Amino acid sequence: MEFLRPASWEEALAAKAEHPAAVPIAGGTDVMVEINFDHRRPEYLMDLNRIGDLYAWEVAGDTVRLGASVPYTRIMEELRAELPGLALASHTVASPQIRHRGGVGGNLGTASPAGDAHPALLAAGAEVEVESVRGARRIPIDDFYTGVKRNALEPDELIRAVHVKKAGGPQQYSKVGTRNAMVIAVCAFGIALHPGTRTVRTGIGSAAPTPVRARAAEEFLNAALEEGGFWDNGKIITPSVAKRFADLCAGACNPIDDVRGTAGYRRHAVGVMARRTLTWTWESYRGAGRTTEGAA
Amino acid sequence: MRVEFTVNGQLQQADDVWEGESLLYVLRERLGLPGSKNACEQGECGSCTVRLDGVPVCSCLVAAGQVEGREVVTVEGLADHAAQRSRGARACGTPLDEARAWQARGTDSGAGEGTPLSPVQQAFIDAGAVQCGFCTPGLLVAADEMLERNPDPSDADIREALSGNLCRCTGYEKIMDAVRLAAARQSEGV
């Protein structure tokens, strides 16, 4: 094994072009486990810790450009206002020790269906900025996950940043596990209200081969909200609408039975989380946007 | 490969390090500092917690090559680290020989007397927060870091800060007592 230690982003791209099999390592949450357990012996290990750019974020206009290695700790502490869904998801990642090292780039690189950031990124409608010596491109999050632990990266590409619109409305994130810390999600659910476009987006984790959106549920809810004039009148979401939304979210799952839970349990739990998080976000929208109307 | 980094305030060198090796392995097997414990090797248990550039991390998840030129504090250097902090001075460090010879010798009669302890170490002894002791080094490093950041932690703060450290003996109550005790002593300047 050879240890590559690029000092800059350009050096990293050059190294990845020369050695497409090189495995990038930043927080080590996934890569080191595979090496410690002898599940993987990459020919080249490429340390990204020295590339300061990956640890920076900037808020420009209505978008946050989040460096791939910005630790979850920083996201949950410093980007709660701009990226509330991702901040909540970040807080559910493992433990303080892991959150100090791990970032969204690693979650995306591994592309595990159980990665905690994915539902929040799907719900927010993020874009992944990837680059190789051939050039840079932005991959919409909807096109990023291509299979179990597979993503849309080319062999010579590295993940540089994630672009996420600043939240224009309430966002929520929910995760099911046996305890609060140190759990891999049994399943997880993210939701974001986008009042600007009058749409709701969702993300489901650990309940299908890849992280997925509940598209049919979103379409149903968007139509129901529009039809009922909910965005303007700020009424309480009708229980039947919430239930139908929850059922459609459960229906969007394609889960398996495994040690963490059965497929049936996952479907059920996603439905419960969908109904709850919809209620939380909608109540927050009603409360913030319309303090008098319909509040009783 | 060779890795040079600062351990407990002093520059150290490890040779013949395999490229896939963890920081934990380098500390234990190459530098002779077995205080950081090797249990799960997957970041689940927190027994291997050390400070890397001030931040608590699982040393089993840090590749050795990633620490080149960086600063690590292990449980063996915790007493010195805490002492320097309370004096407001920069740590001069714990030499490797001293760190290797370091033993927990508290001021209670059972544990002997002598070697100075950090306040959090003394509090663990006084509160009876140590049973088998395997998780203790990681808990000490994590608790000490929290008290550095947050001198007056709530119970929720303590639980959150220690949520990445598993203990299978104590049921955590004595550990909570110990950290509360250390915080109280720290605030009283004891």
Automatic annotation (TrEMBL), chain A:
It comes from Streptomyces fungicidicus. The lineage of its organism: Bacteria, Bacillati, Actinomycetota, Actinomycetes, Kitasatosporales. It comes from the Bacteria. Residues 1-169 form the FAD-binding PCMH-type domain. Keywords: FAD, Flavoprotein, Oxidoreductase. This is Carbon monoxide dehydrogenase. GO terms for molecular function: FAD binding; oxidoreductase activity. The keyword Flavoprotein applies. The keyword Oxidoreductase applies. SMART domains: CO_deh_flav_C (SM01092).
